[in-house]
Amino acid sequence: MTDPATDPTLDPDMRSWVPGADGHPDFPVQNLPHCVFSTPGTGVRGGMRIGDWLLDLGLIAPRLQGEPGTAMALAAAAPLNAFLAAGPGARRMVREAAFAVLTLDQLRALGESALVPLADATLHLPCAIGDYTDFYAGIHHAVKVGSLFRPDNPLLPNYKHVPIGYHGRASSVVPSGTAIHRPHGQLAGPDGPRFAPAERLDIELELGLWIGTGNAPGTPIPIQQAADHIAGYCLLNDWSARDIQAWEYQPLGPFLAKSFATSISPYVITPDALRPFRTAQAARPDGDPAPLPYLGDPADQARGALALNLEVWLSTAAMRAAGLPETRISASDARHLYWTPAQMVAHHSSNGCNLRPGDLFGSGTISGPTPGSEGSLLEATNGSKAPLTLPGGETRTFLQSGDRITLRAWAEAPGHARIGFGDCTGEIVG
Amino acid sequence: MTDPATDPTLDPDMRSWVPGADGHPDFPVQNLPHCVFSTPGTGVRGGMRIGDWLLDLGLIAPRLQGEPGTAMALAAAAPLNAFLAAGPGARRMVREAAFAVLTLDQLRALGESALVPLADATLHLPCAIGDYTDFYAGIHHAVKVGSLFRPDNPLLPNYKHVPIGYHGRASSVVPSGTAIHRPHGQLAGPDGPRFAPAERLDIELELGLWIGTGNAPGTPIPIQQAADHIAGYCLLNDWSARDIQAWEYQPLGPFLAKSFATSISPYVITPDALRPFRTAQAARPDGDPAPLPYLGDPADQARGALALNLEVWLSTAAMRAAGLPETRISASDARHLYWTPAQMVAHHSSNGCNLRPGDLFGSGTISGPTPGSEGSLLEATNGSKAPLTLPGGETRTFLQSGDRITLRAWAEAPGHARIGFGDCTGEIVG
């Protein structure tokens, strides 16, 4: 792999001819995430975001020769599963070719012919998601929520050994902007359960991982190779109905409390773009048990975590009616994950379970250790005992109709261009 | 719907010209399940089992006119998701057309041109499974396993109110005959966990449900319509590593203990064929709480359960070497499910979760109330305290390398032809 310090596609001084791309807070030419989009009257197809434009890769691919042309054609086809399956080499070729088109004057005419204004496009799920798995790697979330559900036993004995996860619902993963219908469900009460709209509707701030190349059944992915199986990242809001969850989750875990909807940001942020922001794990303090060997690659522990700023923003219907802007209700960082993405991949496949290209992992809720960094309202309100006060004077424990939640993420580091993930938004209906 | 008593496709006196079909214990002309198969040198395609033959539906469809021809073309295409999506009307048309071809002398030449000997065919998964959900509706299993894990609290307070379920892994659902690789995983021990091959490898005897027409996100399926969304049934073996499960399952439920493999029988047994075997729920005794209204269709409770004989057979490598036949280790009945298939569909969609054609449900382990009817080895051996003794003198608590498990199911009732499901087999490797 190219060293981030000498990778020309990461050089912060590189300029693009695309209007507004240089200095774009999220999508300068150093980012170049993949997406699937459509415009009125056209089919869904693969693109890359640059500034406030999309590069329509199907118009670039025929102009490339050999392997880069083949890789670009895969990246131009929706859904992106086959492109993700093609692995890091194909992804790198597409990145370098797109970077050339977007930076070289002699390719500007070609590039301009393939630029679509973002405002004209609808963004879709980038992949057909075969399986969606949700991990629980945010240790501060696990401790805080555990202390609310099990005051005597907040962090279970397996937590620091096992990257805890569970299977989620793939059918209800939706792209940013999709309305979120408040679920009905069984809610416990003094006279027995009743079936009613959930009253404790919450968010979970998570990082999403896209699986690239998969593995054959019965053939685990070694930890040393696991990072190469991750094709990209997104933001993920694991909407959660806490009252449904509390009643249904024993003994087999969350089910209908989660399966009504999971929102993701539509861009596949590549490992290439994120390489400057790899860091050591922050959440495994000295004295914690060493990972078992199948999870214990020293290189992964030294550089396998990501330093990513994460934020949760809220806008209510009343705030919008009063002309008030959205307000930030949490700021966290992906460094607070106890397990790295590579450890999640190695663990998931360690029993021989086959991962497939386009599978989606959620990281688990990424709360920080301090007040104001909570990844869920359950935590932020201390189990609804301390409601949030919003601009305009409203208070919130859980989400109300018309509440609009936006997750945001960006990375910055000295000597590198800042890159962002794009919004992961959903508004509560009902 | 046609009354079973007057439905000509269920008439036990109807004869087929197919050699060996009449009196076939599992696949007489009254059954006619769907499947996906291939033969050497040909692609995968849709068929129906009759006797020890498969009817290649792609050779029949072009000879049919109008809607039946359209429906038959869907049933001829692999995977069967689009056919299942077409709903009960299309399924009925295909059943009636195939029944005519297989029973009428004047259509015999057409039928003979489309018959493939079963011995020449490889059977595949019938559908591309979007999501696999595993329920926990076998109450005798829940009580017995609960008493092993939580002696003081075997059946949790939610059990008789909520059709408990969890999301399973779709990628590792495999057709009968696929070898099952023993998983490695974290096993708890006195000196902390170690990563090793699972030692407590078990089975779970389940009924599988295939979802036909789905529902839009945010639009639950009413209980009164839920049965129409079930396109068929199969057998399902939810292989389970109990030692991995015991260590990993708190607080979010089973994960790697299950995701290495789930075996299913390859035939989609239709609700039409099973209509004579619908029965009242046996497992909800007087005094139990009434289902909440969203689960409480009286017609479903009166006739929504299935009377199905279920069996587990075991053959070990040593038994085969000694020329000993497989031995039956359990006999149960689908009537022991506490929740009906329709209740599972209504509950799953009650929060607005969208089901998609080709989704697979497992019923949960179907144990009976008496010794010899256990759906898992964990139960049959009373938590491995009472090993099974096999022909030839071997004993078993959990599965050994070379052990071959076969699930079987059949239905019979006075005045109706007996029909069967076909084997669900898997042999342990490693």
UniProtKB/TrEMBL annotation, chains A, B:
<feature type="compositionally biased region" description="Low complexity">
    <location>
        <begin position="364"/>
        <end position="376"/>
    </location>
</feature>
<feature type="active site" description="Proton acceptor">
    <location>
        <position position="141"/>
    </location>
</feature>
<feature type="binding site">
    <location>
        <position position="136"/>
    </location>
    <ligand>
        <name>substrate</name>
    </ligand>
</feature>
<feature type="domain" description="Fumarylacetoacetase-like C-terminal">
    <location>
        <begin position="134"/>
        <end position="426"/>
    </location>
</feature>
<dbReference type="InterPro" id="IPR015377">
    <property type="entry name" value="Fumarylacetoacetase_N"/>
</dbReference>
<dbReference type="GO" id="GO:0006572">
    <property type="term" value="P:L-tyrosine catabolic process"/>
</dbReference>
<feature type="binding site">
    <location>
        <position position="365"/>
    </location>
    <ligand>
        <name>substrate</name>
    </ligand>
</feature>
<dbReference type="GO" id="GO:1902000">
    <property type="term" value="P:homogentisate catabolic process"/>
</dbReference>
<keyword id="KW-0378">Hydrolase</keyword>
<feature type="region of interest" description="Disordered">
    <location>
        <begin position="364"/>
        <end position="395"/>
    </location>
</feature>
<feature type="binding site">
    <location>
        <position position="238"/>
    </location>
    <ligand>
        <name>Ca(2+)</name>
    </ligand>
</feature>
<feature type="region of interest" description="Disordered">
    <location>
        <begin position="1"/>
        <end position="22"/>
    </location>
</feature>
<dbReference type="InterPro" id="IPR011234">
    <property type="entry name" value="Fumarylacetoacetase-like_C"/>
</dbReference>
<comment type="pathway">
    <text>Amino-acid degradation; L-phenylalanine degradation; acetoacetate and fumarate from L-phenylalanine: step 6/6.</text>
</comment>
<feature type="binding site">
    <location>
        <position position="204"/>
    </location>
    <ligand>
        <name>Ca(2+)</name>
    </ligand>
</feature>
<dbReference type="InterPro" id="IPR036462">
    <property type="entry name" value="Fumarylacetoacetase_N_sf"/>
</dbReference>
<feature type="compositionally biased region" description="Low complexity">
    <location>
        <begin position="1"/>
        <end position="11"/>
    </location>
</feature>
<keyword id="KW-0460">Magnesium</keyword>
<dbReference type="GO" id="GO:0006559">
    <property type="term" value="P:L-phenylalanine catabolic process"/>
</dbReference>
<dbReference type="InterPro" id="IPR005959">
    <property type="entry name" value="Fumarylacetoacetase"/>
</dbReference>
<keyword id="KW-0106">Calcium</keyword>
<feature type="binding site">
    <location>
        <position position="249"/>
    </location>
    <ligand>
        <name>substrate</name>
    </ligand>
</feature>
<dbReference type="Pfam" id="PF01557">
    <property type="entry name" value="FAA_hydrolase"/>
</dbReference>
<keyword id="KW-0828">Tyrosine catabolism</keyword>
<dbReference type="Pfam" id="PF09298">
    <property type="entry name" value="FAA_hydrolase_N"/>
</dbReference>
<feature type="binding site">
    <location>
        <position position="245"/>
    </location>
    <ligand>
        <name>substrate</name>
    </ligand>
</feature>
<feature type="binding site">
    <location>
        <position position="134"/>
    </location>
    <ligand>
        <name>Ca(2+)</name>
    </ligand>
</feature>
<feature type="binding site">
    <location>
        <position position="238"/>
    </location>
    <ligand>
        <name>Mg(2+)</name>
    </ligand>
</feature>
<keyword id="KW-0479">Metal-binding</keyword>
<dbReference type="GO" id="GO:0004334">
    <property type="term" value="F:fumarylacetoacetase activity"/>
</dbReference>
<dbReference type="InterPro" id="IPR036663">
    <property type="entry name" value="Fumarylacetoacetase_C_sf"/>
</dbReference>
<feature type="binding site">
    <location>
        <position position="262"/>
    </location>
    <ligand>
        <name>Mg(2+)</name>
    </ligand>
</feature>
<feature type="domain" description="Fumarylacetoacetase N-terminal">
    <location>
        <begin position="30"/>
        <end position="126"/>
    </location>
</feature>
<feature type="binding site">
    <location>
        <position position="258"/>
    </location>
    <ligand>
        <name>Mg(2+)</name>
    </ligand>
</feature>
<protein>
    <recommendedName>
        <fullName>fumarylacetoacetase</fullName>
        <ecNumber>3.7.1.2</ecNumber>
    </recommendedName>
</protein>
<feature type="binding site">
    <location>
        <position position="206"/>
    </location>
    <ligand>
        <name>Ca(2+)</name>
    </ligand>
</feature>
<keyword id="KW-0585">Phenylalanine catabolism</keyword>
<dbReference type="GO" id="GO:0046872">
    <property type="term" value="F:metal ion binding"/>
</dbReference>
<feature type="binding site">
    <location>
        <position position="150"/>
    </location>
    <ligand>
        <name>substrate</name>
    </ligand>
</feature>
